[in-house]
Structures are given as C-alpha cells and as structure tokens.
Specification:
Strand order of the largest sheet of chain A: 6-7-8-3-9-10
Number of domains of chain A: 2
Order of helices and strands of chain B: HHHHHHHHHHHHHHHEHHHEHHHH
Distance between the termini of chain B: 35 Å
Largest interface: A-B, 44 and 40 residues
Number of strands of chain B: 2
Structural class of chain A: alpha/beta
Number of helices of chain A: 10
Radius of gyration of chain A: 20 Å
CATH superfamily of the largest domain in chain A: P-loop containing nucleotide triphosphate hydrolases
Oligomer: heterodimer
CATH topology of the largest domain in chain A: Rossmann fold
CATH architecture of the largest domain in chain A: 3-Layer(aba) Sandwich
Strand content of chain B: under 5%
Strand order of the largest sheet of chain B: 1-2
Chain lengths: 257, 563
Amino acid sequence: MLEIQHLYRSYRGIPAIQDVSFKVAAGEVVGFLGPNGAGKSTTVKIITGMLRPNDGRVLFEGCDIEEDMVSFRAQLGYVPEEAHLYTYMSGLEYLQLVGRLRGLDEALIEAKATRLLKLLSLESWQHSPISTYSKGMRQRVLIAAALLHDPKLLIFDEPLSGLDVVSGRLFKDLLQLLAAEGKAVIYISHVLEVVEQVCSRVIVIAKGRVLADAHPEELTRLMSLPNLESVFAQLVKQQDTRSIAQEMVEVMQIGNA
Amino acid sequence: MNELVRKLIDRLPLEFRVLYRQFLLRVIDLEALSIEANVPGFLGQFAGVLIMLSLVHSTVAYIGYVYIPMLERMAFLFHMQHYLIATTMLVVGLATVISWDSTFPDRRDVMVLSPLPLTPRLILTAKITASCAVLGLAILTLNVASGVMLPLILGAQSGPALGAFQTLPAWWFTIVAASAFLYGSVLTVQGLTALVLPRRIFLRLSAFLQLAAFGLFLGVYFVQPSITTPAAWDRPQSQWILASSPSYWFWAMFNQMNGTLPAELSWVAQRAWIGLGFAVSGAGLSLLLCYLRTMKKTVEEPDLVPGAGGLHWMPRLGGSLQDATAQFSIRCLTRSRQHRVAFAFYLAFVFGLAFSVVRGEMAAPGPIPISLDFMLPTFLMMFFAVVGLRNVFSLPISLTANWVLRTTQIRPPEKYVAATRGTLILFAVAPVWLLTACLSLRLRPVVEVANHLAVLALVGCIVAETCLIGFYKVPFTCSYLPGKANVQLFFWGSAIVLVALVIPCVEFEQRALRDANKFGFMVCILVGCALALHAYNDHRGKSAVIHFEEIPDEVITTLKLSG
C-alpha cells in the first residue's frame, strides 16, 4: 500500500535522512523506532506531504503522492507527536472542523464525532474548550480526528503520550482491529514493550539511515538478545546511560561547598 | 547618560528585570509573529503613527494660532486643548483594552510563577511597571510634538507673567492625570469584578467588558459634541455633558491649573480631582485585593469542568469547506482576545460613522432626502469593515495547530480562495449593507435609496475581491511578519487614496441616482470590475499554493548558521 523509496532530505546541506526505504502493506502495523533526532519526524513529515524530499519518492497504492497529493491526503489519518490543536474550540467543534475540511457530509460528521467522543470518554467535555483539556484528553481528540474519515493509511506518532492505562489498553486493541480491517498503520513510539506486542514489523532508524527492518521476534532471534529494548540499544549504539546519569549528578553539584 | 541608565537598571533585582521584560512582551502575542519578526520594529511602527499624529496636531495648532483672528483664537485654543486631551484619553483607553487582563495575574502566571521563589509584591510591581511602560510610551509619542507646541502657544497667549513655565507642567500633569484616571478606572472595574464573581463567570464577562470599554471609549470620542465656547457651555443641554464627560473634566483641570478656567466651570475641574482620587485609590485597592484573594481563587479553580451544551448554531454557506472556513473565522474572532480587539478597532470606525449618520437623521424632523452626508459614510463603513477583516485574517490564531489544515488540504487552492471570499462577504460586506439599509429607512426617495444600496453591495464585492488579490491563505493561519505589510505606508496611502477618489465618485453617484442612463452606465462599470476581479482571483488561485508561513520552510527548520 505505502512504499517509501530512497528518501533523502537535508537542511542547509546537513542530511536529516539518507536513503530511507521501506514498505507498509495493508493490514500491517509497522513500528518506526529511533532515538531523538534520528530522522523519524522528517520521514513522517514527508509521508504526510508537509515536507518535500530532496530525493526519493513516496508511493501510495502504486502512485507517487506528489502527483496526486489531494487523493493521498483523503486516505491519510495522522496523529502528530505533539497535541497541537486549536485550543479555543471545543472537542466537538474541532472534529466538525476536520470533518468539513475533509469534505464529509454534515450528518455523518455529527454522528461519527459524537460517537467517537463518547467512546473515548470525552462526552461530558465535548462542549468545553480544548484549552481546558488534559494532555491525555487532547490526545484522544487527535485520535478521533484521525479516524473520522475512515482512512486507509494511519500514522500514529507517540499516540500513548499522556494516555491513562485504560485508554492505553483501548488504543492497543484499536491498533490490532485497524490492522484486521486492512488498514496500513505506521506506529512511532519509544515504549518498546508496546511496539513488541502490537507491531508485525519494526523499522529502526538512526542518524537518518534505516538500520533494521524485520519482525520483532526475528530481530531478537538474529541478534541473540532477550528483547526489543536490547536490540534497539545495540543497533543505535546507545551510550552508557549509567555513567551519563552519574555525570549529570556531578554537574548538578558544581559550586556546592 | 547611557552608562548612568545602565547602572540604574543594574541596581534593580534580576528577577524583576526578567519578569518586567516578559510581561512587556506579552502585550504582543509573540506566537503570532513570523520567526523573522522584529518586535521592536513592530512597536516602532505604531509609535511612528502616533508621532506622525502628534506632528499633525502641533502643525494645526500653530497654523490656527497664527491665522485665526484674535477674537476667535481663545475658542480655537480651548477646542484644541480638549481635542488633544480627549485623543490622549482615547489612545490610553485603546492601549488599556489591548492589554486587557495583563495587569492581573492569569492562570498561566499563577501556575508558572507560584512554584518559583518570587514574592507576589515583585510580580505585582513588574506587572504594573510593564503596563505603565506601554501606556507611557503611547502618551509620550502622541504628545511628543503637540505636548510642547500647544503649551508654548498657550504660554505666549497668556502673557509674559505666566509663560510656558506654568503651562508646560500643567499640560503634562493633566495628560498624565487623565491617563491615570482612565487606566485606574479600568483596573478598578476589572479588579472588583474578578473579586466578586466566580472565576469562570468573570472570564466570560471580562470579554464582554473589554468590548464594552472599547465601544464606550470610541463612542464617547466620536459622538460627544464640542462645548468649548462660552455660548456652548452656558446652554442647559451642555450641563450633563460637562458633568459626565471625563475629557471635559480634565480640560477644566488644565485650565484651572493654567489660571484660564472661567469661574462658572470650577465645579467641572473639581470632578476631575475627585474622579482621579477615586480611580487611583480604586485601582490600588483592586490590585491589593487581587493579589491577596484572586490569585488564591485562581489556584483553587478546578482544572476540568464539563462544558454546557447551549446553543451551537453557526452560519452555513453551502459547501463544507466554506462552512469550515466561515465557522473557523467567526470562532477566532469571537474567542480570541487579540483578534476580537483588532477587528473591533476597524469596527469602531464603522460604528463611529454610523453614529454620525444617526445623529444627522435624528436632528431632522421628518424623512430627509438622500445626500452626500449619508452616501459618503456608507462607503467608508464598507471599506473599513472589509479591509479591517482582511487585515485581521492575517493574524494567526495558533501556528502549531496548522498541521491539521495542511494534512487535510484535499481541495484545489481556488476553493480556499472562494471560501475566504464567502467569509469576507458574510462577515463584512453583508453586515455593513444591512446596517446601511437600516440607517436609510428615513431617507427618500425610496428608489434612489434602493439604487444606492445596490451600488454599495457592488462596491463591497469589489473591495472584497481587491483584498483577496495575492491572499492565498486560510484566514487566521499564516504567520505574521511585521514590516512586510508596511502598515504606515498602507495607512497613509489608503487615507490619501480614499480622500482623492471617494468624494468625486460619490458626487458622480449622486448625479447618477437621478439619471437612469448614468446609473445604468455606473452599474455596468461596477459589475464589470467585480466580475473581472473575481475571474482574476479564481484564475490566479488555480496555480497558487496555500501558504502558512510568510517565509519559506527552509529558514524555519535551520539555524542559518552559515548565513
């Protein structure tokens, strides 16, 4: 369904991603992992059409998205990393805005928005301004907005951030059901236990390059490591966190008598 | 000198300087500005407009003093004094409205500053200093030339015994006192309302109070008559104006200090002193109570309160994108303090002109013929409403939330241009047209009035189409780059063009209303212009790219270290 081919993007000559290629099939939940600054956000921005690559292309159902961005966007649902919303609107008004921008029928928007807000336990707050919402509530509004138009491709960037345990469990179940419905899902997260549970494939990116692309179990077996966290640490050559933490404590104490 | 100032500033506590700077910058919504925005330059633009006004005032005062005959000169100078005091009070009032709520700590202040080792007294002092700095800058720039020229003229007029040594301090004391009165009154009202009402109700009411204050300041300024001659202030109907208008109180205060106040008006000056006393002590009390009680109330306010259902009707324009744009716009205008105030600034001109029309009609005993006095203000009202709304469209509401508009852009750009056009017509052209229709109910003959309304609608559409040229944005979404719009150039340029073009055009329209051939010709020209501009905008819109930043993305995503 989605094919990323040799993406390259630099900012003033400094490459952010280089030769990034992978595929996401219908019914697949793909984990997209990497440390901070690895190039995940740049890749996602290119996939969502917010940024143009210097080289490479993104194919959706065999067509370059640049050639028909409008059709591609109509099939895309996106939950960004930060819950940036128009906070002076209420949750319901925000969903109405998104529904109208996506050209949905008024009655359909009303029916879907109301039910989604109820299912996400936001019914009581649907008329309150988003500025009063907690982080988790904002995240739930974003998830509802991404599902409103029944997209074929969904990108979730740190969707569990701020969600409580119940909402987190609901979201994990939702991911599996979306895959079963034939949706292609890209799931970006730093919570590797969840990635291990819900993703059928994992792509690890560091310093702008794809380091691994395989099933989580396959990765742990091939690298002879106990879990995905160890695999991730090994792949991205994670620093000795213990010694860094020790150094931070020392810096904090500089100047103390 | 600079060294001395720096040393004095360095003596202030660091925490105070940091807070003061933060509160000062909060007058402008930094999040609305483009990444390359120059904040001092932005403030400088407004200061420049005020300095220009001051120069114009001082020139008018000097020319009047030189050329007006001796017998009429005193009346002219009285009028000039009152005009300058009223204008200063208006500017201070507008500055107070723009920085509404900034003197009292909001929830953000309380949540961010409370955990830090800062005393409420320090926060209070920094807030008041920042507010006073903004007001002081406005007062100084508006009076920089006229505040010297007029006292010098009055000093020379009063004779060598008094001279400018008495007039100059009296003038500046009056200006500062009038400003303190207005600022203090607003703080008193705000502080006491915050104290008495529950926080949520206060926040809702505060928005209405802000608009009410805005309307009051502008309404009084535009509507109150001039009563600065002995004949005028002796009239019985003038007594209530002298008794209730603060600008006349402070005009009397100045003349009392200058020794030029007629004895029969000493009671008016007395009102200024009493009013000043009440406003200053009321503001002091409000601030004290606020920091003792309102801050505590703010902390105790629950984080989450379910919203009420209520009425949620919104206008529909037909298409879903048009509905989305129109509803997004009306919500921005009604719920964002800065956007509301910015649009209210232009609406003030509209209502000021409407008031002037109403006043003329009220003075007539029966139906009156349609004339230039009616037609000219209606065109100006249309111009201010459409251009004002278009300018407010340029102020973004939340740049970080724009991603949703980018990822849902599933229609061609010309559809967005059409949606913006619909919004401009719905919220600017249509209301002004309806207002004009209401204002014209007492005008005759009816056919000429109807023809004028048709012409006004066409002119509204032309102004809206002209405003859309090059505007390939969703309203309230694109970052603002101060300086790019050349506010001063635009302001003065538009004023000159308006004066040069509107009067002859309206004179032609008046003749055309009585001549069917001329009227037909005029309508054909207007329809042609409207259609041509519509077609041009649609054509350009097809190849346009909807943009959300005044500068290319590349600059935003790099640190420009190489540049």
